[in-house]
Each structure stands twice: as structure tokens, then as C-alpha cells.
């Protein structure tokens, strides 16, 4: 029996797949409403992340190392909304995989690559915030936009190679098991463990450890700010206080982003672990998988709630002011 860390669904007999058939669906108001809601979710995901991409790319004031990581996350989320989420929502509504085997293979490659890219983007954001807070002077000198862009490109390239190699050299591109109602990638026990460690355990450990350190440092900064305010009111101390407050605020907002991300990811992580021990229904795992992809929809909402610069950029974009001469120089912070 094969198990998968990506999909903890197992089948005792391959022949059972042949007896599955997609349930008949009658067109009803609820059925139409489900598709309307699905289209709204896809539109919100794509447009929300597209606004983040336009904002960071267009306005020069936002060309910072941290924002390059946010840009990378928005690109992966936007691609999830455009290429993965529509298929998953159709699959969920129909309770059936309605596409062919070739499309299933393409879907698996795309969804797993983009999911792992998003996870590592969040891990890089956690590392970036730690170094920005722990050693701001060294961070300013050593970390540049070009450096972060190079790291991000390497991250995307390595993860693409990993996912292609994993699925090719383990034979899954040729032997992927698809039932008429399901599309899951099956790995043996060894590769299941390797993939679980590389794709989830390692980046999640990095996220949790570094954000724990970030909040410890932020707490120390809060104490230092109170002491500076109590002892002196000079311009130097005021500038230092404002800088520390800005870094702490950025860390808190990104902390909300990371917390929501982990909340969406951990049910999938738990199901993946259980899938190697007990048999789990495909429908249950499919809903948990959908929660992972819906995180790409939630992220732009978080930016809109907590980032004034994002709200201002959205207003400038929707009112077409970005097409004005020198609009990229407009102050948004």
C-alpha cells in the first residue's frame, strides 16, 4: 500500500478506482451559487495579490528588501489563485475529478511547486525580520534589494527542480494513481518522509523559531523605547525610538501574516502525518487541502487591514493615478 505526505489517501485495491464514477449533478440554485462563490474567491485571490504586485513594483518607495519577499509571496499566491484554486474549487463542488490524467499530472506539479514556494517565502520573511531587528546596522549594509531578489530567484529555481525531480525519479509522472473521482500523488514511505521534512517540517521550524526570536527582540525594544522616553527627549533619541517602533510594527504585522499561514497549514500537516498511520477519506483531506490554498486569498486581506501603504496604493491604482507622470515617486509610506 502506498502512502503520500502530500496526499495521505490510500487505496487497498487499485481496481476499486475503476468502479468510481462522478455523481450526477442537477442544476439548482445552490449549485449555481457555489460556482458564483467559487468565482468570487478566485477573483479576490488573483486581483488582491495582483494589487500587491503592482504596488511593490510601481512605487519606488516600496523597493525594500522585505517588500521583495512580500512581492515573491504575492506572485506565488496570485499563481495559486489563477492556476490551482479554480481546479480545486471545481473538484470540491463536483466531489469528483472531472479532468483527464494528463491534466492531473500538470495540476500536481503546479500546485505542489507553488505551495512549497509560498511556504519558503514565509520562512524567508521570518529570517529577514529577525536579522532586521537583531542587527539593524549590519542588515542595512549587507542586505540589499538585489541580494534579496537573487535569493528569491534561487529559492524558486531550487524548489522547481526539487518538485520535478521528486515526481520524475520516483516514477510518479509515469505511475500517478488517478481514479475517476480523485487526483492524488502517491509516494512510498521513504520519499513520503523526505518530502514531509523538506516541504513542511524544515520551513515551519524556521518560521516558528525565528518569529519566536523576533517577538523576544520586539519585547526588548519596547522596554528600551520606554527607557529612552523616560530619560531624554533629544532629537536623536526620538529618531531612534521612531525607527524601533517602525521595525516592531512591521514585525507584528508580518507576525499576523505568519500566524494565519501556520493556522491554514497545520491541519494539512497533521493529516499528512496521520496518512502514514491510518487511512483517511479523500473528501476529508480535500477540504484540508483547500484551506491551504485559501491562505492565498487571505493574505491580501491582511495587507488591507494592517498596511496603510497598501490601502493608499490600491486607491492610487484603482483611480488610475499610477499612469500619471512620475507617479512612481509618490510617497505612500
Structure description:
The protein has a single domain, classed as Rhopdopsin 7-helix transmembrane proteins, CATH 1.20.1070. Helix content is 75%, strand content 1%. The chain has helices at 29-58, 65-94, 101-134, 136-142, 145-169, 172-175, 189-231, 235-275, 282-306, 308-318; strands spanning 178-179, 182-183. The N and C termini lie far apart (56 Å).
Structure summary:
The chain has 333 residues and is mainly α. The protein has ten helices and two strands, in the order H-H-H-H-H-H-E-E-H-H-H-H. It has one domain (29-329): Rhodopsin 7-helix transmembrane proteins (Rhopdopsin 7-helix transmembrane proteins).
Number of domains: 1
The gross shape turns out to be globular
CATH class: Mainly Alpha
Order of helices and strands: HHHHHHEEHHHH
Give the name of the CATH superfamily: Rhodopsin 7-helix transmembrane proteins
Membrane topology: Multi-pass membrane protein
Pfam families: 7tm_1
Transmembrane segments: 29-57, 69-93, 105-126, 138-162, 196-218, 250-270, 290-310
GO molecular function: trace-amine receptor activity
